Amino acid sequence: MTQPINLAATLATLQGGGVVAYPTEAVWGLGCDPFDEAAVIRLLAIKQRPVDKALILVAGALAQLDGLLDWDELPADRRSTVLTSWPGPHTWVLPATPRVPAWITGVHAGVAVRVSAHPVVVALCAAFGGPLVSTSANLSGQPPAFRRDALDPEMLARIDATSDGETAGIAAPTAIRDARSGAVLRC
After folding, report:
1. What is the pLDDT of residues 85-121, one digit of tens each?
2. What is the pLDDT of residues 7-41, one digit of tens each?
3. pTM for this predicted structure
4. Is 75 exposed, middle or buried (0-12, 13-18, 19+ CB in 10 A)?
5. CA 21 to CA 135: how far, in whole Å?
6. Quick one: 12 exposed, middle or buried, by C-beta within 10 A (0-12, 13-18, 19+)?
7. What domains can be seen in the chain, in order of their start residue?
8. In terms of Cα–Cα distance, which of 119, 116, 148 is closest to 132?
């Protein structure tokens, strides 16, 4: 399924430290450069979310996560479980390397990551050259937006760009699982 995307404008916004809204597997997400502290802090302020809560990194390819995950901390069977679930709507909390900033991990030692198959996410991450922050495009505590026209107008007024495209139609936000144990941390 090919979806249109104003890739050049969205990419320029990301590279300039901006915050963008884009469709993911289930809900609309907010994203920015995960290594730009000011962009991440601004994204958190837009969502009205505290910095101590962790954020998800989304990638369009596994190689975009190179150097960010400590795979040696996982037993081979757990690593295999994670890797065979990607690309797809599966978010895992994995051991993070010191390259992952504290404004992404929050108070946690691991980092939540997903390698997406969604064409807009894949295109954005490929053009950007790495993973993006991925958090639901809603104010903290409010329901997520499953459609572009359900995005909060006040929140939209505070972000820098909105991508074209649609979600993949999954009916609920993706579950987050602990890669070490397989336990579901969020349904």
Report:
1. 999 999 999 999 999 999 999 989 899 999 999 999 9
2. 888 889 999 999 999 999 999 999 999 999 999 99
3. 0.93
4. exposed
5. 10
6. middle
7. 7-171 (3.90.870.10)
8. 116
